[in-house]
Amino acid sequence: IVLSIDQRELGDYHPYVAADYVNLGNIRYQMEDGDAAEDYYRKALAIRLTHYEEDHPAILLNKTILVKALVLTGKLSEAESILNEVLVLQRARYPQPHTDVALTVSEMAHVARAREDHARAVQFFSEAADLYLATTGEESKNYLIAQANLGGALSSTGELGEAETTLRSVLGVLERVLPEGHDNTARAHIRLG
After folding, report:
1. Fewest CB atoms within 10 A around its CB: which of 65, 75, 91, 114?
2. What proportion of the chain, given as a percentage, has pLDDT over 90?
3. How much is the pLDDT for 170?
4. How is 64-106 classified by DSSP, letter by letter?
5. Helix (H, G, I), strand (E, B), or coil: what is residue 117?
6. Rounded distance, CA 60 to CA 56, Å?
7. How many C-beta atoms surround the C-beta of residue 66 within 10 A?
8. Average pLDDT, the chain
9. What is the pLDDT, as a whole number, of residue 131?
10. Read out DSSP for 118-135?
């Protein structure tokens, strides 16, 4: 409904319409419908490209989000190519640690994990965690997710001691900042066994 209202009131190529497509893509992604999510993300990107330059943060973020759907549908080569392009442009735009770079590096880790290249996944998740730590701090959701993903990737490489240490550090922060018995703390305990 929101999409059709925005299209009627603002036209098919308004940035709000692009945002509507991203939101629809996010819903389809959560439903694990990668093809529909990809279609919505591509529509959003096409609209945004009529308003912004190729290196604009909105374009780079849209491409990074598109990659999630590509990974879900197994289009790993295209996903990796897009991420490499985005990362070059982001590093030129943001010489200091930045959350957008951290997100892109994290998505590179997901591509590596999907390719079962666990050593590269560890490298990328570690870099993403470092970037999130520098930009958002130890108690941020994104840092904790990156650390938990790093722990899982370390486990996949057989580095079980380091994986446990990493996951225990996440658990320590969760226990410190969340109420006792919180679902995320319980999940972290289960992950540790």
Report:
1. 91
2. 75
3. 87
4. HHHHHHHHHTT-HHHHHHHHHHHHHHHHHH-SS--HHHHHHHH
5. coil
6. 6
7. 26
8. 91
9. 97
10. HHHHHHHHHHHHHHHHHH
